[in-house]
Every structure is written in C-alpha cells, then in structure tokens.
TrEMBL record:
Keywords: Hydrolase, Protease, Signal. The keyword Mitochondrion does not apply. Belongs to the peptidase S10 family. It comes from the Eukaryota. This is Serine protease. GO terms for molecular function: acyltransferase activity, transferring groups other than amino-acyl groups; serine-type carboxypeptidase activity. InterPro entries: AB_hydrolase_fold, Peptidase_S10. It holds the Pfam family Peptidase_S10. It comes from Lithospermum erythrorhizon (Purple gromwell). The keyword Signal applies. Residues 1-31 form the signal peptide.
Length: 473
C-alpha cells in the first residue's frame, strides 16, 4: 500500500508537470473554487465540492461551468463519472439537486421563502467522483463571449466535452488514473456514446494525455428519431392497458407510414390522432402518476427537450396540493439557484447570465446525429463496459425500445432475462451480454419513470454500485 501510494504520487506529479506545460502552450484558461458552505445548508459541507469554468476553443471563448464532487468513499480508487444531463439544454445542477447529487431540497421547506437543503443518502457520490457539466454552451451557467459561439450540436457537444475533460485534468491531475465513465440520461443518453468515441479518438491521437476510459452509462435514453420508436411507445401503452388492440395495430401502420412517406395516408394521420387521444391525459413521464398537462411539457419528440423546464412558470401556493404534480417540486431549484447569495457561493461570474433556468429551451442547437446506434455498434467491438437502464413506467422512452436496440447489437447473451433484487425484493429485471471483451448490461427499475434516478434513488444507487464493482445485478 505504501509503495502504491508513492507510485501514484510520482505519476500524479509527473502528469501535473506535463499538464502545466501543455496549459502554458495552449493558453488554457480555467477557474475553480472549493465550496465549503451553501445557502440553505446550515453546516460545513461533509463532502468536497468544487465549481468552476473551463475555457474551450482557440480563444477560450466558450466557458463551460461544472460542479465536481469527490467520492465520499475513496476518491483515488473510485471511478470518475462525467455526467451529462438531458435536454439538450438542461443544467447539471438539476441532476445534482433532484437526482443523483449529494444534496436535495427539504420537502418540508418548499413553501418557505427560501428552501433548505438536506443530505441525499442515495447520492452516487457515495461510490464515485462525479463531474456535473453544463453542456452545451448556454446551458446552466455555461456561456460564450460572443453570440456566434453559442451555436452547438450533437457532434459539437461531443468535441466540447472531450476538450473540457482534457483541460479539466490540468486542475485535477490526481484523477487521471481513475476509471472514467461517461454517463447521462434522457436526450443526453443519445450523446454519451458519441462523447465516449470522441475521447477514445483523442486517446489515439494524443499519446501524452491518456484518459483511462472504462465504459459508459445511459438512463431512459433515446438513441435516434426513428419512427418505430414512436411505435414502441404505442406498444408499451398497450402493455400498460392504455390503448386497445386496434390502436396497437394502427400504431404499426403509422410507423410504416412514417418510414415510407408514400404510405402515410389520411387514415394513418387519423390513427395517430386516436392514439394521441388515448394517451393525452396520461403522464408520459410516469404512467401511474397524475397527469400535469397544464404545466407538463410535450415530450413526444426526442428532437425537443425530454427534460423540460416546467418550473419557471410555477408558483407555489397554500391552496395547491404539493403531491398532485411532480413538476411542482422543481420550482425550488430555480428559486434557490437564482438567489444572489447562492450564485456568489457557487462563484458564478457576474453578468454572464441574466437568469439561470433548469432547462434552456433557446439553446442554438442542431440535432445533427439522427441515429446513435452506429456509435453503440462501434464501441461494442472494443473492450469496454456499458450499462443501459430504464424506468419501467416511462412512456417517454419506453424500456421496450431500449431493449430492442440493445438486442439489435446481436451480442452473445451471457445472463438471460431475470429479476434483480434489493433487500429481498424484486426491483427490476436485467440481462447481460458479452462479446470479445465488450460487456453490456440492460436493466429496468421497477416503478420508476423518466428518469429512473429521480423516482427510485435507493434502487439506482444499489444498481450502479454493483455495476461499478463488476458484480451482477
């Protein structure tokens, strides 16, 4: 252990020197701060939180903001996760405060003038170091120094993520040897394998800076805009008794029409209308929860936001029943984050953002990757690990569609479909594939919606801990 410690120390010092030289050569501009306290939490933070900006581009004219939390268990040996939130345009702070981060809002203070924060016992930082990144530019507190630099796309997000990570290690060289996982949910799940391949390509080109790639994780993730994904939503709704056999058959015809425009008759469009009517008052993000159609987003198209900012126009009142709509619980995120004392504590640069929004609808974004499946195929030929998980009550991206593309990879089935357990109870189902060193686990999370980590945090922590450790679910 003593020799291992000194060997790691020497490697880290050498890498720090190399990165320092590179930063001088490339004019790397970065800023970071260790955050000790946060408004709403009345104690010193019991974990290490670092926030900061990383400048990318030739003139560092894009400034990407991040939140980094060291693992609460063993920062040096635990994996490092680069987390991308869905949207595109949704801030990493959303997942930090609502899903897998170490702090959540105290539900008993949501009606007060300033919400309080409590520790999340099911944070993924219990088992991993996590970077929550505001990507693409314009998301969260990330900004550009000129209007033309606000343009982004699927492919540009991937190159920006790689450039960010490459420069991030300048300030954090001791994590260069940690196993790196690229992770994200919802729309970000489409971009994750693209980012992973970009880092892999960077490793091949730049032999000096080898990032220790291990695998990727996607949750409730769409991978393309294939019209048959829409049919899988209809098929899933049929399984959940939300439409009839007739609507299921009509959905199949509709899918055929979408793939073959000549077949898209008036009848197909009418069938589509009937299907939409069946699902209109059903909460697509969780089919068993109340529908919040007056405030809930339209998430029927993956080309639009899958994680909508539904909270900006929501005002809490004593008369409103808090439990009636999950989206109401998002309001404190904007309330808290836009408070000047919070932004000062997070070390936000004044004047760079007029207002923080959880999900920015107005990001200038080109959906230039219509299908991420080829990226999964490319990576499945290499010796990495992948985890694809889905809430089994999600009708935005039904698990049936995720399971379909997983099986379309035509990998060797190692562990057939079976339940997985926690505390002696079935909490989902899983199957595992392995071929030529590539390992892929698919898992459902029982009772979870879109996205699973928000609905079933305890189960998702157990899932990721087992998977990171290499143990079967």
């Amino acid at each position: 252990m003593f020799l291992k410690y000194h060997l790691n120390l020497k490697i880290s010092l050498f890498l720090l020197f190399v990165f320092f030289i590179n930063s001088i050569e490339n004019n790397v501009v970065m800023a970071q701060t260790i955050i000790r306290t946060l408004p709403g939490y009345n104690h010193t933070l019991p974990f290490t939180l670092v926030t900061g900006y990383v400048g990318i581009g030739e003139a560092d004219d894009v400034q990407l903001f991040y939140y980094f939390i060291e693992s609460e268990r063993n920062p040096i040996d635990d994996p490092l996760v680069l987390w991308l939130t869905g949207g595109p345009g949704c801030s990493g702070l959303s997942c930090f405060l609502i899903e897998i981060g170490p702090l959540h809002f105290d539900p008993h203070t949501l009606d007060e003038s300033f919400p309080s924060l409590i520790l999340n016992p099911y944070s993924w930082t219990k088992v991993a170091n996590i970077i929550f990144l505001d990507l693409p530019v314009g998301t969260g507190f990330s900004y550009a120094t000129s209007a033309e630099k606000y343009y982004s796309s699927d492919t540009k997000s991937a190159t920006d993520a790689y450039d960010f990570l490459h420069k991030w290690f300048v300030n954090h060289p001791r994590f260069i040897n940690n196993r790196l996982y690229v992770a994200g949910n919802s729309y970000a799940g489409k971009v994750v394998p693209v980012v992973f391949r970009e880092i892999l390509r960077g490793n091949e080109v730049d032999q000096r800076t080898q990032i220790n790639l291990e695998g990727y994780v996607i949750g409730n993730a769409g991978i393309n805009n294939d019209p048959m994904e829409e049919y899988e939503r209809v098929s899933y709704a049929h399984c959940m008794d939300l439409n009839s056999d007739k609507e299921l058959a009509n959905g199949s015809d509709y899918g055929e029409g979408r793939m073959n425009p000549g077949l898209e008759s008036h009848q197909c469009l009418y069938d589509r209308h009937l299907i939409d009517q069946c699902l209109y008052d059903t909460g697509k993000e969780h089919v068993l929860e109340p529908s919040c159609s007056s405030t809930a987003p339209d998430v029927s198209n993956l080309g639009k936001l899958l994680l909508e900012e539904a909270s900006n126009e929501i005002i809490f009142s004593a008369e409103r029943e808090k439990s009636s709509c999950r989206h109401y619980g998002y309001a404190p995120v904007s309330q808290w984050t836009n408070d000047p004392t919070v932004q000062e504590a997070l070390q936000i640069r004044k004047g760079t953002k007029e207002k923080w929004v959880r999900c920015n609808h107005s990001v200038a974004y080109d959906f230039d990757i219509t299908n991420a499946f080829p990226y999964h195929q490319f990576l499945s030929k290499r010796k990495y690990s992948a985890l694809a998980y889905s809430g089994d009550r999600d009708c935005v991206v039904p698990y049936l569609f995720s399971l379909k593309w997983v099986r379309d990879l035509n990998l060797t089935l190692e562990d057939k479909w079976r339940p997985w357990y926690m505390d002696g109870q079935v909490v989902g189902h899983t199957e595992k594939y392995e071929e030529n060193g590539f390992r892929l686990t698919f898992a459902t999370v029982k009772g979870a919606g879109h996205t699973a980590t928000e609905y079933k945090p305890k189960e998702c922590l157990a899932m990721i801990d087992k998977w990171f450790s290499g143990h079967p679910l």
